[in-house]
Amino acid sequence: MTDDDEEDVREAVERSRSGAPAAGRVIRDRFSSDEVFQRIIAAADEEITSGSRELFFSGLAAGFAITITFLLYVSLTASTGGDPILSALLYPLGFIYIIIGGYQLYTENTLPPVALTLERLASVPALLRNWIVVLTGNFTGGALGAAALAYGGVLSDAEATVAYDIAHKGIEAAPAVLFTKAAFAGLIVAGVVWVEYASRDTISRLAVVYLAFLSIPLGGLFHVVVSFTEMLYLVFVGDLAVVVGMTDFVIPVLLGNTIGGVVLVTAVNYFQTTEHRLESARFEGANRRLSLKEWAFGGLVGRSYVPVIDTAAKHARKDEGTYRILVPITNPRTEQPLVEFASAIASAHEQAVVHAVYVVQTPTRSRYDDTARRQLVEESDQLLSEVCSVADAYDVDVETSTVVSHRSFEELFTIADRDDADLVVMGWGEDRLWDAARAERPIGELTNRLPCDFLIVDDQGIDTSKLLLPTIGGPNSELSAEVASALQSVGDTEVTLLYVADGPEDVEDGEQFLENWAIDHGLEDADIVVDDSGDIEATIEREAEDHTMLFLGASERGVLARLVRNTLHLDILDEVDASVVIAERSNGRSLWRRLFGRR
């Protein structure tokens, strides 16, 4: 018997009487409820962490795409004599563009964050912010589309009459009827979201989206963005007031879509998944949820979002007497000097902790199963333990943690705020958090109100033996002085204070200023240099040649805001060989930003 014959016999023996394989695995052709939930969570991560600019313009594109739906519905109704089925055949096209293209539409792509909010992984304010920005973009796009239809000559006279009649049907309906029909539309849309993420291929998704949205005109239902576009069309042709259209038509539809969609997500899709859904969707499961206060008030009382992986939460400040330094790391193999620098500063305090956080920005829509998460954390812990070994020489407690999130720079502010950190020490250069920050929400919302003091280090080989500190006073220079004094108290560090006067007649005043300033800031032993050239940059460059580290205070505009906007250009960094440290003092948070969770 040949080998092939033996294989055939073995296969025959291993088959059950029903013909199914007796060995091996069966490959399922559909996702389980838990797996669908995980896919929705991955999409919700992307949406809830998107910047306002990205959400708005994606919403604007979606709103304008709805114009296609209205246009085709009007055109087919006119050309088919009002046949209820034929006129609706192309109605779903705008929605297909939106869903397959990944645009943000209020009733579709913004429903997944509801799952995050139900799981207390995102706060209610974060959800509302997402909804408001997307809805604003949708309405803006719908308004542009309605204006194009009304004034652009796109519709023939017959089609314009049909558009007028279609729009008037909604205006003439009672608000209670609008609400009920919109609620059914919301149920359909929420079902589309769930089934779309349960689909394994684009063809299936197309079929689901087409049939679901075809049911809206066939059932006489209402979708809020379509209704808004119809309402504005009547406004533009001079037949309706905006206020009346909003109160009598759009708002009832908006409420119906929202309640219908959320009820289905809550009552049907969410609770049909198992009680282990969170453990499979988030590292460390329910232990990672927002507190009830955070869930209700977001950034006002703590966090507004829980990232994919966050082992930093367990290190939140417990002892008010401990000075905490946070060191965000983007490359553990190259940023050991930052931890050593932070440890040197920390060692000047009686009780101090250095918290090194490996911040990993994960691509959008990425997924980590439980094994992958734990492996990532274990590898990160190993890398960080090697990085933080330099702290042993300073007798300072070191904590390490890993944060994996679709955000990066913004996540740093969340950690610093939650840790109640006193100081953040972070590197400046290529492959830092700056580039990622530019893709996040407007960074001015963060950098205008720093949660703690910041030191931005341009590392040219950190050596604290000879420090140069130019100053004309101010809070940022005071922070530089505090750090210089701390380094001086724990090591063989020489400090030079530099003042650049406008001319020889100001030298005496400059010397008196530096003497007093040195005494006030614990730097009585510092050398004092007063230059009368009036050329600040050239003087600093010349004096820095004999020093190993240069401290600069941030300008009034702030170094962080200018770094992430790529508007900070200091020629001095290219001209000096010493490491440069830019200090920026914490400026607190306004009541307005606290109320709305913006730091």
From TrEMBL:
Transmembrane segments: 55-76, 88-106, 127-153, 173-195, 207-229, 249-271
InterPro entries: Aquaporin-like, For/NO2_transpt, UspA
Keyword DNA damage: no
Superkingdom: Archaea
Pfam family, one: Form_Nir_trans
UspA domain location: 324-457
Keywords from the UniProt entry: Membrane, Transmembrane, Transmembrane helix
Name assigned to this protein: Formate/nitrite transporter family protein
Species of origin: Halapricum hydrolyticum
Source lineage: Archaea, Methanobacteriati, Methanobacteriota, Stenosarchaea group, Halobacteria
